[in-house]
Design brief:
alpha/beta
């Protein structure tokens, strides 16, 4: 999950309700956040994302497009970046993420 503010935490909550998804870290551009922990997950720097073993990066921020561009510049494959509407109600966000994750899984399998 890229983002540690309200949108990032909302994405974490949505993912927590999906059996097939596990958040493994949070990422943040703020150096003061990096190295801390949120919900037992490390907060890493964006530079560490490309080297991580994450299958997909979910942007939990209202600044989705700038962060998406940043991730691509860091070497993350565009198809590995999810940009859900974190301002949507939680059930809608969870449904959107569940569908997107299912489609991503089917694409990797086929």
């Amino acid at each position: 999950i890229f983002g540690t503010g309200a949108a990032g935490l909302k994405v974490w909550e949505a993912l927590a309700g999906i059996d097939t998804a596990d958040a493994i870290w949070f990422a943040d551009n703020n150096p003061k956040q990096q190295g801390s922990m949120i919900f037992g997950l490390n907060v890493i720097s964006p530079a560490d994302i490309a080297a991580s073993d994450a299958d997909l990066i979910v942007i939990g921020s209202m600044s989705r497009e700038p962060i998406r561009k940043q991730l691509i510049a860091l070497g993350v494959r565009p198809e590995a970046i999810l940009t859900p509407n974190a301002s949507a109600p939680l059930p809608e966000l969870r449904q959107d993420l569940a569908c997107t994750l299912m489609n991503a899984t089917l694409e990797r399998v086929s």
